[in-house]
Amino acid sequence: MTFVYLGCLLLSLAAMVLLDARFRLVFWRDARRATIVLALGLAFFLAWDAAGILLGVFARGESPLMTGVELAPELPLEEVFFLLFLCYLTLVAVFGARAVMDARRRPTDEPQHAKERAR
Question: Where are the alpha helices (DSSP H) in the chain?
Fold first, then answer.
């Protein structure tokens, strides 16, 4: 039982938190709304996983990099953190892209020499 995969997921989540905090994209913009959206996304994907497991589509593979802890049959602990990371990454990417697009649309100040030429 190792924590390599779970550790990588937690490290990746921490990086998303740092990006979010630095650019005020998701939780630092509206924590209540972000929590609701993240919880709904996580619930949706966990329900999707449950349906896949019940239908026999999803199965847990063995890996020496995983903890071996199962929350339910065929549902490893790492899956919850992966889905959380996936949802959070999507939110950060969408709001990050929106921030970049908004910054490009803002009118820039004209250089001083352009104003002088216009006279």
Answer: 4-23, 31-54, 77-105, 112-118
